[in-house]
Amino acid sequence: MNSTSIKLGWQLSEGANQYRLIQMYLNGTLINSNDFGNVSSTNVYNLEIAIQYLFTIYSGNSNGFDLSEGRGVLVSTDSS
Known about the structure:
Elements: E1 3-9, E2 18-25, E3 30-36, E4 41-48, E5 52-61, E6 64-65, E7 71-76
Antiparallel strand pairs: 1-4, 2-3, 2-5, 5-6, 5-7
């Protein structure tokens, strides 16, 4: 099985000190969820070839994550 990876980056939000990245297939099936400290990028590995993924990043602080204000990006892996 072939796989690929991607580096995702985002701007740090004022007042935020943690971030949550949700990885889903395009059909809405949850694949993975990762929490990070105050960082502005991460690498995602083991993506399947010729699949569309939806990545959504949420910011948070000591009160938790604001799950109503996520920012998403649709990623398609190359079939070659």
